[in-house]
Amino acid sequence: MTVQQPRPRKVAMKRGRPSRQDVAFMERAILSTALDMFLAEGFDAVSMERVAIAVGISRTTLYSKYSTKALLFRAVVHDAIAQWYKDSSGNVGHSLRDIRDILRHHVGVIARLLVDPVFDAFQQLVIAHQNRFPEFAAIMHESGYLDAIRLLSRDIRAASERDRLPLRDPDTVAEQLITSIYGWYLQYRLVRSLTAEDIENFGCRVVDLLLSARQDW
Asked: Engineering a disulfide at 152: which of 47, 76, 174, 216 sits with its beta carbon 3.0 to 4.6 angstroms away?
């Protein structure tokens, strides 16, 4: 998979003390630009100097925020994970009432994330450097996989309360759905190109199978 080369996000530096808004804009520009560069070229090929030039700030300014490239990479990983999973963590309990619709909503969120080329490249980048930066894989596991299970489990629990049905182990139900979809995706992406619709179709079939045994949840 090819990741497009980053487009520079130039920061117009003003004289005098920068405002809080200027600082926030510069921080966003640094993280966004560095993410694009790391994805396009890998960790080792990117230099702090090139990041500073692309953003339009001095090396001194960049080093004052991140004293090493590893610290910049760490900030990029934290920020990217937070952004991706913030987008998928909305509470569907207020808008959807039927358990089938709720589960299918989560299937759709997972499917769209898995076919996002930037997310895929980011995941491959973290995996490629997991021996050098093992904490990043742990962050993805905690803030990605486990958070997804917690969010889905929360909605399963809320639906069971509304439907007045017993519920013993919502976490396992949630994990079964997520791992079934991801495992299927990992196998079939090896032999053919997958769309979000392909993944959703499989995921909805898993939902039907799980619901057929809802009394055992």
From this structure: 174
pLDDT in tens, 167-193: 999 999 999 999 999 999 999 999 999
The rounded distance, in Å, linking the Cα atoms of 163 and 97 is 9
Sign of the torsion formed by the C-alpha atoms of 196, 201, 204 and 210: negative
pLDDT recorded at residue 12: 52
Q: Are 114 and 199 in contact (CB under 8 A)?
A: yes
* Residue 16 CB-density burial (10 A; 0-12 exposed, 13-18 middle, 19+ buried): exposed
Maximum Cα interatomic distance, the chain, rounded to a whole number of Å: 66
| CA 150 – CA 90 distance, rounded (Å) | 12
Q: What is the chain's length?
A: 217
Return the pLDDT at 9: 54
List, for residues 16-51, the tens digit of each pLDDT value: 566 788 788 999 999 999 999 999 998 899 999 999
Taken in order of first residue, the domains within the chain and their CATH numbers are 20-74 (1.10.10.60), 88-216 (1.10.357.10)
